[in-house]
Amino acid sequence: MALTLALVVLAGCGDDAPKADPKPAAASQPTPPAAATPVAQAQVGGPRIASDQTYLDLGDMLLGAERTVAFTVRNDGDAPLVIRRIETTCGCTFARILDADHHPIDSNAAAASGTVHTLAPGDRCSVELQFVSAGQPATRLRKQTRVVTNDPLNAEFVLEIEVNLIQAFVVDPHPVVFGEIIRGDVVTRTARVAADASMAGIELLGFSDVPPYLEPKLEKTADGWTVSLTTRPDAPIGYQQPTLHVTTSHATFVKIPLQCAVTVKSPVVVDTGDAGRREILDFGPVAAGSTSDRVIRVENGAAQPVQLLEARVDAKRADCVKAEIEVDQPGRSYRVKVTLTAPADVKSIRGSIVLKSDSPLMPDKIVPFQAWVTKPAGSTEGGGS
Known about the structure:
Blueprint: H1 36-41, E1 49-50, E2 55-62, E3 66-75, E4 81-88, E5 93-98, H2 107-113, E6 117-119, E7 124-132, E8 140-149, E9 156-166, E10 169-172, E11 176-182, E12 188-195, E13 204-208, E14 214-221, E15 224-231, E16 238-240, E17 243-248, E18 255-265, E19 268-271, E20 281-287, E21 291-300, E22 308-315, E23 321-329, E24 333-341, E25 348-357, E26 365-374
């Protein structure tokens, strides 16, 4: 019979916050929920779910590892106990039912009938839980699983596991932040990778999933490992947040995620002359019927020339705005003269000047512009644009 999960997760991991209360008793000394004992002992007819153990302490676990445990539940009543579904409170926990012979119940068939499993009086089965620690915080966590049944006195039977997650490898700093760099610059940042004491004999081997614009280097030190990351001159312009991996010799912890953050800026500088908002063109108030000029300067600081090819107006009232390119030094320095003729039928004009070049050093650059149209006293107000 195929090994399939009994039910999917109902809520995200964030719904189950770590507990700050003292560590409960170990697995050899179960501490069932307060409601379990009176329910199991109640002398009332009908189905009765019960278990000798409703809590398991998994102890310390390296972050990224997995663990599978099982709870035995039984029907202490005098009528069939119907297990309708299993609800886990976290995406890190997967549950399924094993019958008395430890064979998994076919969840597909159970879904069609609306019943996962039925226990006759005195019968028992197992609830198997698989805990996957990847993506969890390095702290002590308690996770609950609810077995929903037709027991009128205990319709949601709670099983709990607790675990203390320890990072197998600590990366510091994490993420590795480059900040803002100019395309063409070669910048190096370093991070230290330290292993938990139980992983002291593990070797770091190299890298995987490395983006083409980063060059990583691995060096072993007396107290761990140092990772150096260097940007290439051809790094793409924009904000990049890649995650590469350091590969290891461990069978389970094969990869250590290493996240980076870098903002690559173009060496081509666009300046509207406004010290506070260099890339926004603000005409301010313009009298209706009048003409106003502003200049956008485009300066290329890279060795490679950049030809400014087009300055296009993108606006609802593009008929009122004109953009002309004036060459100061081909490939190096340009001026874009933007002329606005304020119409009398609007209150404001907004849009963008789209600058196009022949180089990836300057992807299409959008420079927003705005103006407020003023009218003589007593004139009729127009609409916005």
